[in-house]
Amino acid sequence: MKSLSTFLALALTLSLAFASDPSPLQDFCIGVSDPADGLYVNGKFCKDPNLAILSDFVITGLNERRPINDPIGSNVTFVNVDNLPGLNTLGLAFARADFEVNGQILPHTHPRASEILFVTEGSILAGFVTADDTGNRVFSKVLNKGDLIVFPLGMVHHAVNVGKGPAVAFGILNSQNPGMITIANTKVLGSNLQDFLASVV
Ligand SMILES: *[C@@H]1O[C@H](CO)[C@@H](O)[C@H](O)[C@H]1NC(C)=O
C-alpha cells in the first residue's frame, strides 16, 4: 500500500514535470470569459474532412519570377495556413524569395519557426546572429545555387543578393504560421519603442 501511494505520488510529480501548454499558433490569442464575446481558436477551425478539396493542399506557380516593387529589392511570397488551409495543425510553411541585384530581406525573426533557406539561383549572402547569452555571434556565408543554411528558432537573420544577376531562394519553416518581426519595422532604438518609452518617462 505504501509503495503504491509512493508510486502514485511519483507518477503525478513526473506527469506534472513533463506537462506543458501547447505552443501558440498565432501572434496572440486573448482569452475571453464568455464565448459570446468572441469565438476564435488558437490556429484555425478544422473543415469537415469529407469536404476537403484538392486546392486545400496545392499551390501552383511558385516557379514564376515575382515582380519587385519594393525599394528594398526583394519580394517574399509566403505559403502558410492563410493561403494553404491544408497546412492547419501540420507545423509547416514555405516561402519563395526573389531578389534583384543588391536586393535584401532585412534582419528579421520568426517567433514560431526555425527556417531552412535553400538557394536555387544567384548568390545570396545569408546569415544569423546568436542570442545575447551566446555572445551575439554572426554565422554568415555567400550561398550559391544548391546551398542552404538553417536559421534556428527565433534567431535574427537576413539575406542579401550579392551576385551580378537576380537571385531566388526558397524557405521551409516548421510552423503553419511562423510570424515575422522585421527589426527595422519595430524600430527598436529609432523608434516606435523609443517613442513609446519617451512618452512614459
Ligand atoms: C510581389 O509579387 C506580387 C505578385 O506575385 C505583387 O503583387 C507584389 O506587388 C510584389 N510585392 C513587392 C513588394 O514587390
UniProtKB/TrEMBL annotation:
Mn(2+) binds at H108, H110, E115, H157. One of its GO terms (molecular function) is manganese ion binding. SUPFAM superfamilies: RmlC-like cupins. One of its GO terms (cellular component) is apoplast. The keyword DNA-binding does not apply. It is found in: Secreted, Extracellular space, Apoplast. Residues 1-19 form the signal peptide. Keywords: Apoplast, Disulfide bond, Glycoprotein, Manganese, Metal-binding, Secreted, Signal. It comes from the Eukaryota. Belongs to the germin family. This is Germin-like protein. It comes from Arabis alpina (Alpine rock-cress).
